[in-house]
Amino acid sequence: MDLKLELQKKADLIEDSLEKYLPKENSPQKHIFDAMRYSIFAGGKRLRPILMLAACDFVGGNIDDVLPFACAIEMIHTYSLIHDDLPAMDNDDYRRGKPTNHKVYGEGIAILAGDALLNYAFELMIRAISKNHKNLERKVLAMKEIAEASGIYGMIAGQVVDLLSENKKIDGTKLDFIHNHKTAALIIAPIRAGAILSGASKEELEALTVFAKNIGLGFQIRDDILDIIGDEKKLGKKVGSDTENQKSTYPSVYGLDASKKKVDELFNKSVKAIEHFGSRSEFFIQLSNYLVKREY
């Protein structure tokens, strides 16, 4: 399998679907549509929706049933980035090599653009459910996965503890809580939701969940590492911001070498969880390897 080609095919499908779903009509609130689209189409990797499509492929589901939910998870992820970049949060000027949303549209519109993307994500999923009642329970359960992963017991929980931990020394337990909720939750949710939508067996869902938990944490630790050793041109953002903002990270708590070893350990665990499924696991295994060794 050519991983880059497969990633591009899935990303193109997501891109086309986002273009179709996102409003762009000339109406009094056109400015908010522009702000939403600015951040959505600012060059993201589409990792989370790709993971959902890959889970669908793994189980043998219908991509058309999954696409609205995949686009919804990308909207939720993008809303979180817009809000993360705000002066009250991480106060970043650039995202993916472009000025952050509030630098282009102002703080007020950036807040509303994030709110709009979050709300519209659920509009999109509800519309998909109401349009086709087939496999209704699966669709509701998938939406529940996404809602919980992005809410007060998921991403927001991690963001709260992260904010409250700034300028403080924290232990590994609290750091794991932050990483597992702020980042890993939105890696696990699309994989589980895609599997549920596609009618996964109990065994398939359990294996994919273990896989997802390991790459979710590994992805964030690699992010911590890249904030120290990464190339700003490849990353599209300033490196060293975690140190500058006195944020606790895996390298700051455990050291750089130990962090690299932890990423390798998580990769091995992710592979072990699904390798017994044979050729069906190939995409996920290659993707896991790519994610834990990525340079951007």
TrEMBL record:
Record CDD domains: Trans_IPPS_HT (cd00685)
> Which domain of life does the protein's organism represent?
Bacteria
Q: Which UniProt keywords apply?
A: Isoprene biosynthesis, Magnesium, Metal-binding, Transferase
Q: Which Pfam families match?
A: polyprenyl_synt
Q: Give the organism, scientific name.
A: Crassaminicella indica
Q: Which cofactor does it need?
A: Mg(2+)
Give the family per the record.
Belongs to the FPP/GGPP synthase family.
Under which name does UniProt file this protein? Polyprenyl synthetase family protein
Keyword Transferase assigned to the entry: answer is yes
